[in-house]
Specification:
This protein has 394 residues and is mainly beta. The strands form 2 sheets. It has an 8-stranded antiparallel β-barrel. Strands 3-2-6-7-10-11 form a 6-stranded mixed sheet, with no helix packed on it.
C-alpha cells in the first residue's frame, strides 16, 4: 500500500511543481492554456488546467526594462567609415636664443680730493743772461766747481743750490683733470759775484774794462701762491694701480722775501791787502778784486766818500783804509760796508708774476696714494716730486 500512496501523492503535486518551475512559466508565454503537446509515443500525458497570473510585460516589470548596457539598435551598428588620419603637425622650431650680453664694465670712479707735499730743485740757466754780460755767477747744485764747455762759459763763481718745498690741495675735476692750488717757498738765489756788462771793453785793445764791474747780488726767493691745471692720461690702469702721464700749466704770484737785484760798483781794480785784480778770472776772489769808493758820480758810487769809522776796515788811525775798501772774504763782502759804499737796488718788486709750465707722471696706488714726478719751468727750470693722499667718496 505504501508505494501506491506515494504514486498518488506525486501525481497530485505535479501541477504545483510545474507552476513553480521557470520553464513552465516560459512555456505558458509561448502557447495557450489547455493545449497539450504531443506525447512521446507510448507515453500518456495528463494535463491539468490551472488558473495562472498573467506574466508581467516589460512595461510593468522593471526587471525587463532595457538598461544602459543594452546593445544599440542594429541600425546604429552600420559600419562607419574609418576616420581620416589626423595630419601630423610639426611644431615650429623655437627661435635661437640670443646670446646674453656681457655685463657692462663698472663705471670709472676716482677719489676727488687730496692733499700733498712737493719739493725739488731749481736751476736758472746761465744762458738767460750770458748774452748781456762778460762775467756772472750761478747756483748749479754742484758745489763750487765750474762746469766745462758752454755750461761754464762766462761763469766766475758757482755755489749753492736752489730748491722749492710746499704743500698742495688736489681737486680731481675728473679722472683725467686736476686743479691744484699750492703754496710753496722757492729759493732763487745766485752766489755773490762781479758781473761785467758785455759792452764794457776797451775800444783800443778790446780787453774787458774791469773797473766797470759791479758787485752783484741776486736773490729772488719768494713764497709762491699759484694754481696749476693738469691733464693726465692712463698709460697703465688696473683696479689696484695706475700709471699716468700728463702736463699742464699754472699761474700765480710770488711774494719776494729776498733782496731782489742789488749791485755795488767795484771801482778801480785793487784790494786792501795789495793783491792784484788783473783779469776776469780774478773776479772769483773778492780779496783780490774788492769793492771800494770810486767817486760821487751816478755811474760810480753816487755820493760822497763814507766818513772815517763807517767802514769795518777803519781803525783809530785816520789814515787807515785810505782806499775806502769794504771788508770781504774770498766769497762775500760785508753788507753794511756795501751800503756805505752806495749799494743800489735794481729790480726790487714786492711781488713777481708766476707762470708755470710742466710735464708730470704719477703712480697712483689704489686711487689713494700718489707718487708724483714733475719737471718744468717756473722762474727757472725745476725738477722734483711729491707725495699725495686722496680721500673722500669716489
Amino acid at each position: 500500500m505504501r508505494p501506491g500512496f506515494l504514486l498518488v501523492s506525486s501525481l497530485a503535486l505535479l501541477p504545483s511543481l510545474a507552476q513553480a518551475s521557470p520553464y513552465a512559466h516560459l512555456h505558458a508565454l509561448q502557447g495557450p492554456a489547455g493545449v497539450t503537446s504531443p506525447g512521446t509515443p507510448g507515453t500518456t500525458t495528463t494535463t491539468t488546467t490551472t488558473t495562472t497570473t498573467p506574466a508581467p510585460t516589460p512595461a510593468t516589470d522593471p526587471s525587463l526594462r532595457p538598461t544602459s548596457s543594452k546593445a544599440p539598435p542594429s541600425k546604429d551598428l552600420v559600419d562607419q567609415p574609418a576616420p581620416e588620419p589626423q595630419p601630423v603637425v610639426t611644431p615650429p622650431a623655437p627661435p635661437p636664443e640670443e646670446p646674453l650680453a656681457p655685463a657692462p664694465p663698472p663705471p670709472n670712479t676716482w677719489t676727488r680730493h687730496g692733499f700733498g707735499i712737493r719739493g725739488g730743485i731749481t736751476v736758472i740757466p746761465t744762458f738767460v743772461a750770458r748774452g748781456a754780460v762778460q762775467s756772472l755767477t750761478n747756483a748749479l747744485c754742484r758745489g763750487n766747481s765750474i762746469p766745462s764747455g758752454a755750461l761754464g762759459d762766462k761763469l766766475t763763481r758757482v755755489d749753492g743750490c736752489n730748491f722749492y718745498i710746499g704743500g698742495e690741495y688736489i681737486y680731481r675735476h675728473s679722472e683725467h683733470f686736476d686743479i691744484v692750488p699750492a703754496i710753496a717757498y722757492h729759493r732763487v738765489k745766485t752766489p755773490d759775484g762781479l758781473w761785467l756788462d758785455n759792452d764794457e771793453k776797451d775800444k783800443t785793445t778790446g780787453k774787458p774794462n774791469l773797473g766797470a764791474a759791479d758787485y752783484t747780488q741776486v736773490n729772488f726767493s719768494h713764497v709762491a701762491l699759484q694754481v696749476d691745471f693738469i691733464g693726465r692720461g692712463n698709460l697703465i690702469k688696473t683696479r689696484e694701480f695706475a700709471w699716468q702721464l700728463g702736463g699742464g700749466g699754472g699761474i700765480g704770484l710770488g711774494i719776494i722775501t729776498g733782496g731782489g737785484f742789488q749791485k755795488t760798483p767795484l771801482g778801480t781794480p785793487g784790494s786792501p791787502g795789495g793783491l792784484t785784480c788783473n783779469s776776469v778770472d780774478d773776479f772769483s776772489d773778492f780779496t783780490k778784486c774788492t769793492p771800494h769808493y770810486q767817486g760821487p758820480d751816478d755811474g760810480d758810487n753816487g755820493g760822497p766818500s763814507p766818513p772815517h769809522g763807517t767802514l769795518s776796515l777803519d781803525t783809530g788811525d785816520p789814515t787807515s783804509n785810505s782806499g775806502r775798501f769794504a771788508k770781504c772774504t774770498a766769497g762775500s763782502c760785508l753788507g753794511s760796508d756795501l751800503d756805505a759804499l752806495g749799494r743800489k737796488k735794481g729790480i726790487n718788486l714786492p711781488v713777481i708774476p708766476i707762470i708755470n709750465v710742466l710735464v708730470t707722471t704719477r703712480f697712483l696706488i689704489k686711487d689713494t696714494f700718489g707718487i708724483n714726478i714733475t719737471g718744468g719751468w717756473q722762474t727757472g727750470f725745476y725738477f722734483g716730486g711729491g707725495l699725495q693722499y686722496f680721500f673722500g667718496n669716489k
